[in-house]
Specification:
It contains 12 helices and 9 strands. By secondary structure, the chain is α/β, with parallel strands linked by helices. It folds into 2 domains: 173 residues, NAD(P)-binding Rossmann-like Domain (Rossmann fold, 3-Layer(aba) Sandwich); 113 residues, 6-phosphogluconate dehydrogenase C-terminal fold (Orthogonal Bundle), CATH 1.10.3660.
Length: 299
Amino acid sequence: MFNKVVIFGVGLIGGSFALALKQAGRVGTVVGMGRSQPVLARALELGIIDAIGESVADAMKGADLVLIAAPVAQTEKILSSLLPYLEAGTVVTDAGSTKSDVVAAARHALGSKVAQFVPGHPIAGRESNGPDAAIPDLYRGKKAVLTPLAENSPADVERVAGAWTACGAIIHRLTAPEHDKVFAAVSHLPHLLAFALVDDIANKEHAGLLFQYAASGFRDFTRIAGSSPEMWRDISMANQGALLSELDAYLAQLNGLRAMLAARDAGGIEAVYANAQRARQKWIATIETAEAPPPDSAE
């Protein structure tokens, strides 16, 4: 049970965290902090938070847990602002999509108190943003990756894990470099590609005609291009090295496919398509098994 949870960033990620803890009956009071008073007021109106912090000092007083659910470039500034008011019993975590930069920011901002910061990343989202997008079951059956520091106490790591578990998430652990390499391939690159495709079409002279005939395939492929540009700008910059490596590998794949197409190598193209189909079907089956609800014990 958390008596007081403070959330910096009360949109989709932070708001869903608050709603999930409330639905589970695991939190007493949720205090919201952020840059936009209208956003905070909307979160209060929706019942996502119970109060808007009048100041960082006010918000941090007696806090059990702090979640930073803001764009990753803001992490160091937020941590620096709360450092003077960080009580011994408070644990801080984050929901950032990159971890190496967040860890570096935490070490720089918190100094000797970095042991109270447990890095995390819930693997869930929607293309919509803001408090109105928040839902209590966003994390149910989804992974939450923790990348604990050597300085973290086991009890603090378990407290953060317990919060995500209460939200319905399944806990995984990686090192920060492992995390960033993995998510450059399966999250950051797909977002870059989706944004790039929509931007390319939007800039064509006959964009209106193209969008008129874009149907479900285009919609599904580009869904994530509806995500926050600010957030994904920060993620791309923060994970630049790993993202460049994945982008180079993808460009090599595209060049290979282009060569096959130019040579009318139908068999080669089909082989690539077939391998991708098999891999995706296997992945979907694995995901569906992992996210299946537990059997009803009453049956």
